[in-house]
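Regression test attached.
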Amino acid sequence: MEAEIIGLIIGIAALTFFTRFAFAVILRKTKIFEKWGKLMIYVPIAVFTTIIVPALLAPKEELEFSIQNEYLIAGIVALLIAYKTKNLVGTVIIGISIILVLRVLFGF
Amino acid sequence: MKMLKPPREFLDGLKAVTPLALGVASFAIAYGLLARKAGLSLFSLTLMSFLVFAGAAQFLTISMLISGAPFFLILFTTFVVNSRYFLMGASLASYTRRWGTRWQILLSFLLSDESYALTISYFTKNGPNKYYQLGVSLGLYIEWIILTMIGCLVGSFLGDPQTWGLDFALPATFIVILVPMIKTWKHTAACLITAVLSITGLVFLPTKWYIPFATVLGTMVGGVLEFWKQK
């Protein structure tokens, strides 16, 4: 079993490295950036939106679009704090506190 | 021999990682805990952190092992989850293309959501710097390995980070990183459309396919908005 797991891990590692490395090599000798450079500023926006939104709306893998969803409420507050202050640690701590308060005091 | 002093940017990169510690820690501990439950040895779960170094893919692998999924399906699903790295690599390539192959290999191997977030914000402000990216990446790598081991060893005493709401730390971190990137109405539109795409994909597509679906289409929507207004 252990040997099989290690084989699997090496397989995943190889695939993961490929996804990270492929475009760094393929694209560096091209002139793609002169034409498509402006598109690239949308990559971080699309990637992080795709990470954040499902984490807030479907924290337990299933869509939970309601005010009973503590992650959604904390997420909206975090968005406002981030917009006002850009403070990373403060936003994280206030967000987690909101989740805990909602769970402990309001039984979410 | 000259004293080897690390460049200032390298130290800046290491420092930039510290506020992310809580988010990375809760994820790493949850992974270590779950991997232990799945019956993985300390050796294998640490090896995975060493070689794969991708939280979402590692977490998914463990959950699929627990549910008894066949290996090829695990490989395929982790590939789908990691497909976002193609886009991240492409967007970094415009900054990193002049660096040597060895640097490309090293920094690509260490690429993660968190290091990408810090690096791309830094590059757009200060221009590309490989030492900064290395500092950020190595800091996160070492933190990830140590904390997954801690999660495995003492996780059962700490309990599941989810009960403490700690799993909110990562999305909150990415919110703080995303918000300053949105400067124009086109950015806002691309963000909102990606949000709708990700949820649509989550509901209607098989496991994790929403990631390539929403990231690729979301980027293209941004591109269309950008070029359309130019003409």
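Expected vs. actual: identical. Chain B touches chain A through 93 residues (CB under 8 Å).
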